[in-house]
Amino acid sequence: MAKAETVVGTREELKARAQELVPGIRARVEETERLRQLPEETVNELRDAGLNRVLQPAAYGGAEAHFGGLVDVISTIAGACASTGWVLAQYTIHNYMIGQFPAETQHDMWGDKPGAFVCGVLIPGCGKAVPVDGGWRLTGRWPFASGVMSADWCILSGFEQSEKRESLMFALPCELLTVHDTWHTMGLKGTGSNDVSVEDLFIPTHRTMTVDQTKFGESPGAKVNTGPLYRLGTFSMFSVVQSSTAYGHARATFDDFLERTRSRTGRVTGQRVIDYGTTQIKIGEAAAALNAARVLLYACADEAMAVAEAGGILDIEGKSRMRGDATFAGNLAARAVEILFSLAGGAGLYDNHPISRAYRDTKCAQAHMTQNWDINGSNYGRVLLGLPTLDASV
Predict the structure, then answer these.
(1) Are 127 and 159 in contact (CB under 8 A)?
(2) pLDDT of 265 above 80
(3) Predicted TM-score of the model (pTM)
């Protein structure tokens, strides 16, 4: 593995670059929604800025930053456009996951193109993997491949078709995928989260990893990427990823709504809306929800990194807390948008009102499993009560 000559930048530098891109990405929100994928200009800006590389190994020029760097970058971009933030979140976390794959996979992907975009769908029940000499034959169809229209590589998952029935992950070039135009939705329209499929596709052994190998800091990639970042339990951190998008989107929605509300008057009464007690208490609640969401997300990142830096691995209660607290943070962000929507009145019903798109995007984001409080919250409660976890991925 060749050592990269230059590093894409530090956590702080990548966050600053993200902030520089905000005006342009915000100006393309309508275009992004109309295209149902990221505009080429946005794709080029994200690639040139190297934002997806905040968690990439330094050996390939990545920032290899603290996991909180993901929260920094994703929440900033999501504040400009929810769809763009969502896609970048997928590129960032799947890029991070490649750092845990075998060294040969990393070389295949990053040797000639260290800035490659990686998407993925990690729903093993959608794929069937048959063992053959030198690898696997993979067949399946997966929904929700966010960002696939601009990605270079993809990680797909499937169950081994044997008595073991292990959950496996496979890295493959996007050119080998069949993309199905299925993403016609109420929100997050610009993510291009279409279905993808493969039929009896050969995947070599070195581009494969089991889910179990990501749990205890002993992934194949950890042998070459020895920093604490690659000892984190990947799946236990997933809710932080989507919730960073939810938080950034909600925070920017709040700031914009607050500015509009300060000068707004009621159509019937002619009174300033800010003088109503109901407005004041709802604005206060939305602000508190967002502040709490931010604290939770960074606390999750800080705790996970502290344990890894000390050479440890989060126990099942810690991993369940990561999923539970981060999911709760995403739900707090969603609650803030719902409160604002309730304050908008009839104006918020029109498609061209910013709160309308914000509400639709929020509801779409909440449909993701990592944002489902019933699933993640109940499992967290089970573990706290001394019952076995129902989440096999952590």
Answers:
(1) yes
(2) no
(3) 0.95
In the structure encoding, which two tokens stand for residue 197, read together?
Answer: 């499929």
Same domain for 368 and 246, yes or no, is yes
Exposure letters 281-298 (e unless 16+ CB within 10 A, then b): ebbeebeebbebbbebbb
- DSSP 3-state of 199: strand
Residue 255 structural domain = 235-384
- For residues 154 and 292, state if they share a domain: no
Nearest-angstrom CA–CA distance, 390 and 221: 27
Rg value, the chain, Cα: 21
Q: Under a CB-based contact definition with an 8 Å cutoff, are residues 110 and 154 in contact?
A: no
Tell me 65's DSSP state: -
What's the whole-number mean pLDDT along residues 41-54?
A: 98
* 220 belongs to a structural domain: no
Report yes or no on 392 lying in a domain: no
In a domain, 80, yes or no: yes
Q: How far apart are CA 98 and CA 172, in angstroms?
A: 11
pLDDT value, residue 268: 57
**Number of domains forming the structure of the chain:** 3
Instruction: Specify the 3-state DSSP secondary structure of 346.
Output: helix
H or E, element range at 313: none
CB 106 within 8 A of CB 277: no
87 Cβ contact partners less than 8 Å away, ≥ 6 residues apart: 38, 146, 147, 150, 190, 191, 192
Q: Are residues 243 and 340 in the same domain?
A: yes
How far, in Å, CA of 199 to CA of 217, rounded? Answer: 32
Whole-angstrom distance, CA of residue 326 vs CA of residue 85: 17
